[in-house]
Amino acid sequence: MPVTHYRACHLCEAICGLAIETEGEQILSIKGDHEDPFSRGHICPKAIALQDIQNDPQRLRMPVKRVGEQWQQIGWEEAFELVASRLAAIQQEHGQNAVAVYMGNPNVHNYGSMTHSNYFLGQLHTKQRYSATSVDQLPHHLVSLWMYGHMLAIPIPDIDHTDFFLMLGANPMASNGSIMTVPDVGKRIKALKARGGKLVVVDPRRSETAEQATEHQFVQPGTDASLLVGLLHTLFDEKLVKDSPALQATLGLEDVKAAIAPFSAEAMAEHCAIPAEKIRQLARDFAAADSAVCYGRMGVSVQRYGTLCQWLIQIINLVTGNLDQPGGALCTEPAFDVVGMGKGGHFDKWRSRVSNLPEFNGELPVAALAEEMLTPGEGQIRALVTSAGNPVLSTPNGRQLDRALEGLEFMVSVDLYINETTRHADVILPPTAALEHDHYDITFNNFAVRNVTRINLPILPKPEGSLHDWEIFVGLGQAFAKVLGQTPRQTMAPEMMVDAALRSGPYKDRLSLAVLKEHPHGIDLGPLKPNLLPRLQTPSKQIECAPQVILDDLQRFATDIQQMRPKLGELRLIGRRHVRSNNSWMHNYQRLVKGKARDQLLMHPDDLASRGLSDGQQVVVRSRVGEVTVAVVASDEMLAGVVSLPHGWGHNRKGIEQDVAAAHAGVSANDLTDERFLDPVTGNAALNGVTVEVVAA
Question: What distances in angstroms separate CA 379 from CA 298, 374, 383, 395, 428, one per listed residue?
Fold first, then answer.
C-alpha cells in the first residue's frame, strides 16, 4: 500500500518541502509539497534525484579499509579501533597538530554531523582544522562578527517585501539561494517586479538570474569593491544617508566616511568598467526606493577583496536606512536560535605554520592545507580526517593537494563514496543516506527569508548494521578516549538537542519536537522583522562600523587598484552554478548529468576571434598552477575578457568508484585556481578573477 511522507530536501540551501511516495522500501515518486508554507510546492531536479542517491549501487554501506590497491569491508568496531589507535600514535609521536581535519559543505546539511562531529574531533585538540567555509563564505561571517558581534548574525534580504534588490555575484535561479534560504525564488522575483520593484544584477556573466532581472550590469571580476565603494561615496557625497534606529546605534560611521573619501564614483569607474554616472544613478535609485537591499554572494566573497566587499554591502544597507528594516536586510529569528545560544566566534588567535594565515573560529584557511602537509618541520600534517568533503576538487590548486594527500601516513574519511579525495584514505566510514535518518535544518533556517521550522523524519528504515553520522562520531570518540585511557563523556541523540533548543528558543511557548511532529508540512513562524539591535553581541552593544582591519584593507585596496583591470589580452576566470549540480558530489546520478554537457568553457565571441579560436573546439586553459583541456563555447552572455568554467567537475582521477561521474568527467576549475591568490584579510580563497591564458589544444 503506497504511503506519502513529507520532509524537506537537504541537497541545497532552499530546504524545499517534498511529498515522497513509497511502497515498502521502494520510492514511487518525489514531488513538491504544495502544503509547505515556505516552498509552496516548488521543486528542482536535484530533489527528484534523491531516489538515485538512495539506490546508487556505488554508495558505500559499510566501513572499508585499504589493503594495497583494494578495499576490504570491515566491521564498525574494528574500524573505530584502527582509526583511534593510528591517530593517537601519530599525535603521540609528532604532536597534536600532526592530525588535521577537513569538513565539507554537506555537513551543514546534516544535523547529526553538526551536533556530534566535535564529540570526536574535539578530542584531537588540533589547530589544523579546515572546512569549505574558506572557499565559500568566510567574509560574510567575519564581517558579522566584527559589526554585530556574532558570526551567524548575517542580515538576509527581505525579498518578499523589498522594492529595490541590488544583487552582486549571486545566481539564485541556479543555486536556489545561498546564505539566503529562498525556495521558489523565481516566483519571488516575479512578485517583486509585479509590485513595481526592481532587481538589478551585477555580474561578469548574464546569468540565469540576470535574465530575470529588471537590469543587468556587467562588471570586471574582482572589482566589485570599486563599484561598492563608489556607491557608498555617492551616498555620502550627495547626502543620501537616511536616519534609522540602526543608524542611531552605530559607532565609527564618521571614520567610515573619512576612509572612503578618496574613492569617488569618478575615481572608481575605470577600475570596474562601469561609468561614473551609472554608479551615481544606481546609488540614487537605491536610496530613493521605499525599501532596498544590497546582497552579494559567491562572486564577491571569493575574490581578493571579499571581506571589504561584504563590509561595504552592510554599510550601504545601513546608511540608506535599510538595515534591520522590512524590505531591507533583516536577521532571521529561527526556532533553533544559534545566535542566541552561543558565543559569536573569534578571529586570528593563531596562524598557519607556513604562510602565517589567520584562523577564524578555530579553523585555518583551506588554501594553506596542502602546504601544511608538504612542508617538513615541527607541526607538519601527517594524518587527515575528512567528513563529507572533496577538497581535491573544491579547493584551490587541487592537483597540489592531490599530491600532498599521497604522502600522508594515515587518512580516514566519513563519506558515502570513494571519490577524488577519499581514494587516498586508509579507512572510509559511510553514514546512512538522507532518507534513512531524521534531520533538522539548524543552519538554513538561520538564513531563511521567512521564519519557518520543521522536523524531517526518516522515510526509509535504517539498514541493519549501518550507523548514522552522529553515531559514527560517537563511536570514534569513544574509541579514541579508550586509547587515551579516558572515560568517554555522555551525550544524547540529536533530536533531543533540537527539542531542548526549541523549548528554550524564541518560540518556546509554542514549540517542541512533539509539536513539530504534529505538523509534517512545517510551521510558518511569520515574516522577518527587525530584531538586530537587541541581539547585538559586540563589546559596545552597538553596530561597530569601522573595524580597524577593514580600514587598513582600504589602504591595500587603494594601493592595488591600478592592477585590478586585466592587461591587454589577459583573461579572467570565473565559475558558474547549474541547478542540477551542487559542488562535486552530485555527478554520479544519470538523472542529473544527462542532456547537454555543462563542463565547458564559456567565452565571448570577440575573445575567440582575436585568438583564432572557433566555437566548440578543444582549448587549453592555463594559469600559474596548471592547465586543463576543455571544449570552448561562444557565448555573448560573457563580458569580453572573462571566461567561465563550472566548479565541481574533474572526475578523471585514477581509483575513484563513481562510474557515472567518470563517464562525464569534465575538468576541475580548481586545477587552475591558485592557493596564493587569496584575500589576505581572512585567507579566503580567491576563486574568481584568476588570470588565465586560452590557446588551441
Answer: 32, 11, 11, 22, 25
- Residue 348 backbone dihedrals phi, psi, to 5 degrees: 65, 40
The set of cell numbers assigned to 616 is: 566548440
Q: Give the C-alpha distances (Å, rounded to integers) separating 5 from 2, 27, 41, 319.
A: 10, 10, 14, 47
By 3-state DSSP, what share of the chain in percent is helix, strand and coil, each rounded to 5? Answer: 35, 20, 45
Q: Which has the closest alpha carbon to 279: 290, 291, 266, 292?
A: 266
Question: How distant, in Å, are the alpha carbons of 204, 491, 606, 632, 644 from that of 615?
Answer: 20, 59, 11, 6, 14
Q: What is the dihedral of CA 148, 153, 154, 160, to 10 degrees?
A: -120
Distance between CA 568 and CA 118 in Å, rounded?
50
Residue range 474-518, pLDDT digits in tens: 999 999 999 999 999 999 999 999 999 999 999 999 999 999 999
Is the overall model pTM greater than 0.85, yes or no?
A: yes
Contacts of 499 (CB under 8 A, 6+ apart): 512, 513, 514
Report pLDDT digits (tens) over 649-680: 999 999 999 999 999 999 999 999 999 999 99
Smallest CA-to-CA distance from 572 within 688, 494, 669 is with 688
- Cβ 461 vs Cβ 56: under 8 Å: no
Q: What is the 3-state secondary structure (H, E, C) of 577-593?
A: CCCCCCCCCCCCCHHHH
Tell me which fold the domain 158-331+531-556 belongs to: Dimethylsulfoxide Reductase; domain 2 (3.40.228)
Do residues 144 and 151 make contact, with C-beta atoms less than 8 angstroms apart?
Answer: yes
CATH T-level assignment (fold) for domain 64-135+340-525:
Rossmann fold (3.40.50)
How many CA atoms, within 13 angstroms, populate the side-chain half-sphere of residue 288? 10
pLDDT bucket at 567, cuts 50 / 70 / 90:
confident
Compute the CA torsion angle 428, 430, 431, 433 (nearest 10 deg): 150
Residues 198 and 191: their CA atoms lie apart, in Å, by: 10
Give the chain's largest Cα–Cα span.
71
Task: Show me where the domains of the chain are located.
Answer: 3-55, 64-135+340-525, 158-331+531-556, 566-696
Phi-psi domain of 666 (left: phi exceeds 0; alpha: psi -120 through 50; beta: other): left
Residue 159 grid coordinates: 525579498
Identity of the amino acid at 660 = V
**Cα–Cα distance between 111 and 125 in angstroms, integer?**
22
Q: All 3 cell numbers of residue 362?
A: 578555530
In contact, 373 and 353? CB cutoff 8 Å: no
The hierarchical CATH code for the domain 566-696 is 2.40.40.20
The DSSP result for 551-567, as a single string, is HHHHHHHHHHGGGSSPP
Using DSSP's 3-state secondary structure scheme, residue 241 falls into coil
Cell 594495497 found at: 68
Calpha distance 33→16 (Å, rounded):
8
Domain 3-55 annotated CATH 3.30.200.210: yes
Reduced to 3 states, what is the DSSP secondary structure of residue 258?
helix
Q: What is the mean pLDDT of the chain?
A: 96
> Rounded to an integer, what is the distance from CA 160 to the centroid of its chain?
23
Q: How far is CA 391 from CA 65, 315, 618, 650, in A?
A: 20, 33, 27, 12
Return the pLDDT at 182.
96
Angle between helical axes of 276-288 and 224-237 (0-180°, round to 10):
60
**Model confidence at 420: pLDDT above 90:** yes
Angle subtended at Cα 376 by Cα 375 and Cα 377, rounded to the nearest 5 degrees: 120
Burial 189-200 (b: 16+ CB within 10 A, else e): beebeeeebbbb
